[in-house]
Amino acid sequence: MSDIIHLLPDSVANQIAAGEVIQRPASVLKELVENSIDAGATFIQIVIKDAGRTLIQVIDNGKGMSETDARMAFERHATSKIKNADDLFSLRTMGFRGEALASMAAVAQMELRTRRAEDELGVLVEIAGTRVFKQESVQCDPGTSFQVKNLFFNVPARRRFLKSDNVEKSHILNEFYRIALVNSGVSFSFFDGDDEIFNLPASNNKVRIENVFGKNTKKRWQQQLLTIETTTNLVSIHGYVGKPEYAQKSATQYFFVNGRYMRHPYFHKAVLLAYNQMIQASESPNYFIYFEVDPQTIDINIHPTKTEIKFENEQAIWSILSAAIKESLGKFNIVPSIDFDQEGAIDIPTTIAVENVRPPQTNFNPNYNPFGTTNYKRPVLDWENLYGDFEKKEQQPIESSIDWESNADLAVTPSFSQQEQQQVIDNLETCAENFQYKNRYILTGVKSGLLMIDQHRAHTRILFDLFLNQIENSRAVSQQVLFPELLELSAEDDLFFEQILPDLESLGFLTEAMGNHAYSVKGVSSYVGNANVIDLLLNMLDKAKTTAEDPAASIHEVLALSLAEASSLKIGQRLSTEEMSDLIDRLFACANHNFSPDGKKIMTIFATDELEKRF
Ligand code: ADP
Ligand code: MG
Which of 55, 97, 99, 586 would you label with 327, given CA atoms 20 to 30 Å apart? Predict the structure, then answer.
């Protein structure tokens, strides 16, 4: 039998290789526009026809090419951007593989016109299926224009593989956004057929974001973006994050590093962590975050279509990122609030420290009698008495009307002083009647409508804040148990249990090691109620163990949450009027009263005008 291995003709080899780089019209657009950026263009015009099937044209005012380079550019592995493998680690350009133009030329009909500023004439090259049809001198503007026509004209299977125009167009737009958002200094004009769908002047990143996404919703974008900014010797991070209330199911999220779009699931988690408990679990914030690092410390994916990038200092950057976002969310005081219906009540802001408030001083003669008779007595209820009473209250712990929290540490949220807390409670007392619906929701009137609160989630939030505070400040109240129970663990679980033991103690769980991985449980958190203590501890241990593997999660929070869930009011529990108003007071004393610690909605409002429409 004769030998059977032979070399594929260049045209076939090129087509196969092209499949890697050029998968659809969007890939062409990406590669061409990136080349223009690398060529130092300050203005780039894009034209597509039929979702890029018939034509993709990119015109730039960049540095252009010499006659020889214009021809060389189409060779596989022809690049002006790197010379050797070491250069891969100091990349400052988008391209470096030298494959894009060769790939396009293998699967489309291309026309290149290019001129360097210093040349009198430019050059025209026409090439299709890797064959050069024309190369000649032409008159043209400095810069470069590429036309890619009839993509996959010679690969019918690929052409058929393309999706509907709408799908292909959305791929194109995605690629365009990824470049336009990080090159805000470059102006872009984008024609879809005869329609100019984008005209983006050179600007800063923020304005660019608004111009790209804010066609009819510019205001929405202007209102929601908070700046983040931090510089360390590892990384400098700047960009914008959306306010929590603008979070949505399919959010707009972009990471860039050194001018290049990237996907980074790990950093994404850092962002989500910063929003922890400010948004619903099913929603996600908008963000546009730009990292600058020493190119030596990242590894750009060698695969032409992959956008994942490895960072040398991933963990450190993770923390820097999360802290930067937390800081700006905190700085802008992003805590949603609700206006209670308190006709006639004094409107006292609940977040302003009021320690220094003094009763108003008035000069008057208490014996002055405007009626000239001696029978008149000033009413007892006056300012001094009101405040005198208030000061007394301040010194005593405030009595709770609900049993389960009678020995509660009242500083549910550390930022609330007792006095402030009292004011919130006083204000809410004037609020309309509460009503419990299906032993599950509390209904109450607020200024803008009817407020409905999920009692279980509300109580979970209250207890969670309290427990977290206890863990962090070690000041729980423990309740001794009459008959200590035995907690038996595996050797492996025991190791972990020892790690969380101090936290459990802070929560009020007192144990004594009995040897052989067993503990006698002598005291429990005073909130536990009827729950089975051993089950509860095992559950907390289990959750904490799972969490320990996830650097994005906090063990303290997990412990606080599982205890809060086990101890909070259940659905179906009947509440008295006092218990309801107490629950509401405590809920609104929590910094984040809108969402439960696991990101579920605690309350909803039926707006008055909505209700009115129903009648
Ligand atoms: P790469 O971008 O990886 O170098 P390409 O195949 O995309 O590979 O481009 C090959 C070369 O052609 C580039 O290195 C560059 O020198 C040149 N080139 C491509 N597009 C342009 C352009 N718009 N302006 C100037 N030079 C260009
Ligand atoms: Mg390129």
Answer: 586
Could you tell me whether strands 122-128 and 109-115 are parallel, antiparallel, or unpaired per DSSP bridges?
antiparallel
Rounded Cα distance between 157 and 159, Å, is 5
Ligand 1 atom having least distance to the Cα of 101: 6
Strand partners, 284: 248
* pLDDT tens per residue across span 468-526: 888 888 777 788 887 888 999 988 888 889 888 988 988 889 999 988 899 999 888 88
Ligand 2 centre and the CA of 34: distance in Å?
A: 6
Ligand with minimal distance to 74 CA: 1
By CB neighbour count within 10 A (0-12 exposed, 13-18 middle, 19+ buried), where does 374 fall? exposed
| Residue 347 pLDDT | 40
Is the model's pLDDT at 291 over the cut of 60? yes
Tell me the CA–centroid distance for residue 292 and ligand 1, in Å: 24
434-to-280, 334, 446 alpha-carbon distances in Å: 26, 28, 11
Query: Whose C-alpha lies nearest to ligand 1, atom 12?
Result: 73
The CATH-assigned architecture of domain 10-200 is 2-Layer Sandwich (3.30)
Distance (angstroms) between ligand 1 centre and the Cα of 166 equals: 29
Look at the domain 417-615 and name its fold: Ribosomal Protein S8; Chain: A, domain 1 (3.30.1370)
Residue type, position 333, single letter: N
Terminal C-alpha separation, the chain: 91
100 CA: nearest ligand 1 atom? 6
Name the residue with the closest Cα to ligand 1, atom 2: 95
Which residue from 31, 35, 46 has its CB within 8 A of the most atoms of ligand 1, so it is best to mutate?
35
Where in the chain are the domains? 10-200, 205-331, 417-615
Q: Which atom of ligand 1 approaches the CA of 146 most closely?
A: 23
* Threshold 0.90, pTM exceeds: no
pLDDT digits (tens, 9 = 90+) for 130-148: 889 999 999 999 999 999 9
Residue ID of nearest Cα to ligand 1 atom 21:
35
Tell which CATH architecture fits domain 205-331. Answer: 2-Layer Sandwich (3.30)
